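> tool_call: predict_assembly(chains=three)
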Amino acid sequence: MFGRFVPREGKFFEFFHESADLSVEAARQLKQLLTDLPHGESRARAIKDIEHKADQVTHRAIELLHKTFITPLDREDIHELITEMDNIIDFIEAASQRLYLYGVRQSTPELEGLADICLQSVEYVRKAVHGLNDLKNIKEIRKNCVEINRLENEADHILRAGVAKLFRDETDTRQLIKLKEIYELLEVVTDRCEDVANIIEGITIEYS
Amino acid sequence: MFGRFVPREGKFFEFFHESADLSVEAARQLKQLLTDLPHGESRARAIKDIEHKADQVTHRAIELLHKTFITPLDREDIHELITEMDNIIDFIEAASQRLYLYGVRQSTPELEGLADICLQSVEYVRKAVHGLNDLKNIKEIRKNCVEINRLENEADHILRAGVAKLFRDETDTRQLIKLKEIYELLEVVTDRCEDVANIIEGITIEYS
Amino acid sequence: MFGRFVPREGKFFEFFHESADLSVEAARQLKQLLTDLPHGESRARAIKDIEHKADQVTHRAIELLHKTFITPLDREDIHELITEMDNIIDFIEAASQRLYLYGVRQSTPELEGLADICLQSVEYVRKAVHGLNDLKNIKEIRKNCVEINRLENEADHILRAGVAKLFRDETDTRQLIKLKEIYELLEVVTDRCEDVANIIEGITIEYS
């Protein structure tokens, strides 16, 4: 296949950027969703659409990987990175669907705090991923990774304190179970961001 | 050690096939278990036995890896693949044990739908793994991987809608917690199948 | 940078040992915590401090990786190993915090059994990690990995039977949810130990 010999290295970075942009967009929609839970369905559907688009980006990136001879980064790193970035959006979508499907009618400070951190975290992922383009500024990339780790700790703290609060104050056990699961899913978003940060950190180590 | 110099490449594929066959067998038994929950104990024990056999296959594959000089695929890929295939069976077993241990007396459409998807998914894993034997038909292998991804999405959908239904209709909160956990474990079976599909996809990328 | 050319290979092993020592210390503190739950806060804080120290060890190991030219093991293996070892402590800390935050006042045989297994498991991790120093005694290393797998199975068994018991005997549904989560977190500690064992096993395969 001719395409195999044409250098298309830059295309991979475009896919990384597209995926990162979509996760930022999903995290923004999630914050909006929390401000208008009674009309959550359409917002949740919008996030589902974003997640679907991200799947296609991932799919096309992997297709390209199969057709490309010379890749700008290790083949396996590209595969792992695009797959793990996809996971971030999957969990944003998972949390947003549950808000709607479980009929959560009212937001909580914990939901808002976690959604805020998710947005910040994917924004740092986007910055870190952009840094991969030239790998010249490894310090900058790693600074973003440190921030992602910090935000994961913060999310973890909100989750723990928030669930403890539910055990103390939420008298409806079903509501407690619902919110606990959604808090956990939002915290997993920051875990997945940390996984991506670890992969990026690993790439900078190989190329440093 | 003499054995180290004798080519035994094919043996690794036999281990992959054995592990895949065992996961298909476990998924079939799980479907049977759902048709006769009051006598679940013996069926759950049969699945435990299958899981134990799979552990031994994994163990022997890793032993062989230590003794083999030239491997048919990257050493680490073999290690990762056999380990992750083992995880599939672990979660089938985990779900089946809970059905019995938690005294679930009656199946639900969601349990049956998820068990169906688990069986389909491990059947595609088996096909994909068989394709690794010669790596000539990469398109075919990847078609199986696409199906595994599709089934994971389907399982996720059943899980979400099923848990939302439990929150609406299941008045016994303990029963809700039990079924929610088992639905989640069955969905994880399809996640683990997807992990295996990702590894296989990664291998086809390296060798394409 | 001059440091880059000075061989500091041994330093990586020191970091592995430090991290392993900290996880053993954390697991010991967890056992203590269970004997005095009403005063859990200070003990949980001590475990938090250990976790924080482990984070710094991980961070310094990754820094060194960036500055070191010749590494005693594959760069990526070092990165993955130190990161996964850190995860072990994270889950010990997560479980201990919940005991305190959820106001668990009384231990159970399952909590004690699981904490015991966690301690044994991290002790085997420490032994396995020490074996990496010279990789001469691969049989010994792998024996430790086998023990870690065995302990993971044992923890899984306690978890399942323990949760089934909660469903039968614990009349307070919130208490059931709390203990179920903490049992699960302690079982995850042994899963993370198994992940580390798998990485170590992978390293011995590469170097055998």
